[in-house]
Design goal:
Layout (H helix, E strand, L loop, with lengths): L1 H22 L3 H16 L1 E7 L5 E6 L7 H13 L3 E4 L4 E9 L2 E10 L5 H47 L3 E5 L5 E4 L1 H6 L3 H17 L3 E7 L2 E12 L2 E10 L1 H44 L5 H32 L8 E4 H11 L1 H6 L3 E6 L5 E4 L1 H17 L9 E8 L3 E8 L33 H11 L3 E7 L3 E9 L8
Parallel strand pairs: 12-14
Antiparallel strand pairs: 1-2, 1-5, 3-4, 4-5, 6-7, 6-10, 8-9, 9-10, 11-13, 14-15, 15-17, 16-17
Helix pairs in contact: 1-2, 1-4, 2-4, 7-8, 8-12, 9-11, 11-12
Length: 495
Amino acid sequence: MLQDVASKKIFILFSSFIREMSNVRNPEDLMKALVRITTKLANCAWVSVCDPNGNVKFAQGNRDSELSEELKSMVHWSTQNLTPSYLPGEQGTIFIYPLSKAEKIIGVMIGESLGELPIESADTMRILAFLSSTVLENLELYVELERQHNAVEETLRYMHEILNTFSQMIVAVGKDLKPVFSNIRYLDQAKNPLFEEEVKKIVQKVFETGTRQIQELEMNGNFYSIVGEKLEYEGEHQVLVTLADITNTKELERLKNIDKMKTEFVANVSHELRTPLSAIKAYSETLISSIDDLDNATMVDFLKTIYNESLHLERLLEELLDFSRIEQHMLKLERTTFDMMDLVRDVVHSMQEFAKSRGAELLVEQETQDTLITADQRRIRQVLINLVSNGIKYCKKDNSEKYVKVIVQSSEDFLTVVVEDNGVGIPKQIQEKVFEKFFRGGSSLNYEIEGTGLGLTIAKEIVELHGGQIRLESEEQKGSRFFVDFPRGADKHEA
């Protein structure tokens, strides 16, 4: 009868322990449950759970937290042999159960029963020790994994915070072109569908080429540098895109370029003014010092040179004055109705001597009979002279068939003048800049090609004041074509 009661008690305690094990989430809770059930099962005075070296991790009962050297020695023997130990104690039986799994020592349960330890209780405690070992190892593994997971999460959070402080926008994009990671600055811009589309384009290009891609994007007046890099995470190919707002850098670069061009412009204008002034001075001094020794023909030749150089000087000064008027928005038009073909022929005739001096032929083509236009004739002449003059200046020296051709075309609303040459052409990378003020194709300190570098700027302003536009087609070493579209009647663009 007593044995049945004891067995029932063991069964109840064992069931209770199994239930508690199913709910524990950390090693400490398991140790508490094991000590509590063992205390009830063996009617213990004290029970402790130690690490393999005998250091107490959890204890219950009336005993010091530290084990004696004798007990530590017994603990060592039990763990070495992976077997329980029993020895007489002050109040009953001292028991030592190694907590092991696959010969790996996880800990030790040690305690003292009040009175002799029943065999049935000892066997049950052996089973509890085995079950606890298995669960304890899993819990320690779980705790370690959780610790590592938390460490990774904390590292990711930390890295995310760092990336959010970057001024650049950062996004990692997968094969499906969807972001898998992005910092807060990118999220702010991703609301713009055009911005998102540009990111997808560079991502696709990286996937297609397998190489790093760099490009610049202008959007709403801001400039962005976009860099796409290959990235692989857990076997999945991705693209890391970094976007930087370089608007301020671009503006600084632009201002530096303008400052440099202004400096070169001043040097170039000084050279252009000095050339005719030097000629005028030299011929004038010769006339003053040698007037009695010169014959009429030589004197007339000298005077013609002085006159021509003064005209050259006048043109330079007029160009500078026109530029000043443009800057101050004071350039005005005086409109009349005239025949564009008559003006074209007049311009070509006036440029013949200059063309011959460069070995170039001037040609005229008329593709329409409707050539009347209402515009400022003097200003239109200025535009055509500039374009024809540039065509002559930039002829290729080694070309035996150099030419500049002026073609007059028409449409319903516009009269178009095309100035075509087979000269050196304009590199593609600078074609958009040729109409900018102070800009010249090469260094403006190279004086082989004369001029201030303002001609095309002034020409563009004059054409646009008429409500027209000037366009360029060019291929390096093959020549250029300038298209000038003039509205036929009065326009509304003049201030």
